[in-house]
Write the structure tokens for this entry.
Amino acid sequence: MSVQCRSALLISDLHLTPSMPLTAQRFFDFCLKEAGSVEAVFIMGDLFEYWLGDDANASSPFQQEVRNALANLSSKVKLFYLHGNRDFLLGPDYLKKTSMTALADPSEVRIAGLDYILSHGDVLCTADLGYQVFRKWTRRPWVQKLFLQLPLQWRRSIANQLRRNSAQKYQRASRYTPAIRLMQMDVTTHACAALVKKYSINRLIHGHTHMPKHHQEQLGELQWQRWVLSDWDLDHPESVTPKASALLIDEHGVRYLDLVK
Amino acid sequence: MAKVLLKTNKGDITLSLDAVKAPKTVANFLQYVKAGHYDGTIFHRVINNFMIQGGGMGVGMKEKSTGAPIENEANNGLKNERGTVAMARTSDPHSATAQFFINVNDNDFLNHTAPNAQGWGYAVFGKVTDGLDVVDTIRKVKTGNAGFHQDVPAEDVIIEKASVTEE
């Protein structure tokens, strides 16, 4: 039995961290305000800037505040969590504490009578072969288990090293071949078509790419609609136009809800 | 039972209206039919497996002016089942004017569950008694975006004439 609801809000890529307090505050406000008006809320990955294990920094004031906001929200609405590429280690312990239901990536859901495929989106970036190899490795249960048994300090330095490498990789690529970089960092039409075909559902929603837009696409005989969720950033107005939005779905259709106020 | 014939460019659809269960909605609908409001309007929101909605936009997605909104009679026991016709509205339960939709599926989630904004549901006031095959043709047309609207048929599906065939 797949997930069903009458109305929903979908968000992703908030990249919550103590160093982005305005973004975090908007999320807390969202949990109290907008999120209460629907039956279900789907958090579709990268809620956190990074996740080193459920035990990491669990007692910091920031983590406590986020946890309370999620637990409070799940007492009012159905709350679903789909892992992103930054917080794929978010575990059963955390899900239980916040009463969130984990969804596989991809998952099919029925909202307001229509079927949708939900994915974080990184798995659809099939032009980036290096990343897909990395992803496969890091999603192996035994690799994760091993990693989570390391002292926190080690985990942190491994994560930092990985982030440095990936930043360098994309920087280098963008300097020399902007077009290739763009292609590699977006989802591919073929990967979307494969999902549409597999599920026989022609409505796809994902985040990850930070390029919010509604697309009407086709490949051969297949046609589908694709909605990309926005990332959130309210803390760097000097370099980034403040952005935060959710996708609202109910019987009136699908639309973006601007949360920048 | 009052009957309304919708002559569309895809074929004829006959609606039988339930004035016993939905007196205000039926009276409102018949008033728009008689005034010629629906003539030349299109089905502007078409979603296969869900519903086809029309009665408010002219060709070119021009919104027509309407009368005052009516009371929502969704608590009349009629269900949003395949082939039924119901009033469209905004998120305010009592905001229906002229736009209506035909359910092409059993849409339980549109039924009345509670007298509040979340659960009021959509008022069914009749059903298709002839021309369900035409409805099925319409729900399968190719759709795309038009301005802020999604699921708009690429080729206009026009209600050429709406008339009362039985009072």
Summary: The first strand of chain B starts at residue 3 and ends at 8.
